[in-house]
Amino acid sequence: MTAGSSSSSKPVKLYGWAVSPFVARALLSLEEAGVDYEHVPMNPDAGDHRRPEHLAMNPFGQVPVLEDGDLTLFESRAIARHVLRKHKPELLGVGELERSAAVDVWLEVEAHQFHPPTLAIVRECIAAPLRGRARDQVVVDENVGKLRAVLEVYEARLGSHRYLAGDNVSIADLNHFTLMHYFMSTEYGPALVGPLPRVKAWWEELAARPAARKVAAFMPLDFGADKKEK
Question: Residue 46 and residue 58: Cα distance in Å, rounded?
Fold first, then answer.
C-alpha cells in the first residue's frame, strides 16, 4: 500500500488492522499527504497487539503504531498530526495563526464532542452483534441524543464556513471520516444527517475524496470499533 514519496531514508511503516477506524485515520493522513509507506497488518484475534515487540512500540497494547525513520509514534490523532505537519502542513493551518487556532478548536471538538457518542453508537449497533451481544438500546438512545446536538452545532458552523475550520479542508474535517464512515452505515446515520443539509453535503464531500475512498475500501461496513484501539 503506497502513495507518493517520503523523504525518510528508512521506510515508513504503519502497524495495525485496517478495519479499525483508528488505524484507518492514520492511513488517511498518509494517503492525503502522498507518503510512500508500508502497512504492516496485524491480527487482533491472535493477540499481535500484546506481543513483546508491539508493546515495545506501544506499551498500552493498542493500534495504530507508526514508524517514521527513527521516530515511533502511537495514538491515531498524534500520528495524523505528525504526518501532515511533516508532509502537508497546510492541512493543519501552519503559518496562519487564526486558521491554525480554528483547526485546533475543531480537532478538540472532534475528540471530545463528536467521538464519544459516535463511537458508543457504532459499538452498540455494529460491534455488539458481531460479538454475539445484543445492543444496549438505552446506550444508543442516550448517545443519539448527544450526537444530534453536536451535529446541529456543525450545521450552524457550516452555514458560515465551507469546512469546520474555515473555507478549506483541514485535519479537523478529515479526522471525522473513518468513524463517521461506520456510523453512516447504521440506521441512525441517515436519520441524523439527512435533516441537516450542510452536514450532509460536508460528509458527502469528505467521503468522495480520493484518499477517503481508498481507505474506505479497507473498512467493510459490518465491522465495529475494537476496544483495544484508540
Answer: 17
